[in-house]
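Give me structure tokens for this 322-residue protein.
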Amino acid sequence: VTVLGAGTLLTFLVGTVAAVYSAWAVTRPFNQLSLVKEQLTQEKLKRISQSKAVSCFVPYGSLDLLGCDSITSLEMGTSCLRPLTVLFVCLRSFEEVSSYLSPQESVVYLNAWLAGVVPEVTSHGGIIDKLLGDTVLVFFEKPHQAMEAALGMFKHVQLHNNTDDAEPMRLHIGMNTGDVVLGTIGTESRMETTTVGDAVNVASRMASLSHMYQTPFLCSHSTRTHLKKKSGVRFRALGPARVKGRPHPVNVCEVLDVQSEEQQTLKSASDDIFQEAATAFADEEFGEAQRLLKLVLRHNPDDGPALFMKQWVEKGPIKFVK
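Here you go.
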């Protein structure tokens, strides 16, 4: 056994400490660099997480159309005029269903509906403007994308209704194409992006009319003309309708593709008579309109628009739609 003297032991300890320090000094920059990288990575992940969270509440597509690269660059009063196709998507069955569901069950019911609506909008390039409970306001730059999304929403509802024990859903959509003002409204402390203008109002009236006409999907003649014929969508013209807030009537079209094959066949077969009835109705020739509408309903008693017109013929001309 070798016994070290005090001096030798001290020399050994000093040398060991020096070696450890040298090794630490050499690796310290690398350790600091790794620490900085870790901190930057965490900050980046935090920003990404925050951005995703904000995107759930702020329609970033609207920022792009407004020419803003981030939400921080959005200013009060920023606006632009764009040709857009606007949809009001309404869950008409919610009022009835919510009367016997608990509040928690009502939320689950709404979210089950939105689980089909939202993906159809985003996957077809649309932007969700507002979630208004049982109504969703969305818009698209291209009419054919709007139509494809709407048809997809009806397929989702059909699949839901075919599910055992599922609460039934009844969907109505109003669609219109035209110039829309997209901008920010509110105050410096609370603002949001939104769409306003006559084209938006007409889309809302189409949704209201769809309920009154007892048909699930209405669009304006403007949307129909913007859609290319190769879209393959089947329409039936319903004639002009006077709507609240507009001095002139709006030409309304019924989208047949979302209806049963039986209804599509029956409505196509009686379309010539129906068009004569719609013309007489618009010209306030109510006696002739009533005669023709009875022929249509004899052929198809479940023709919602024909039933609506016949009721108005018997009670008086249509004044406005709320």
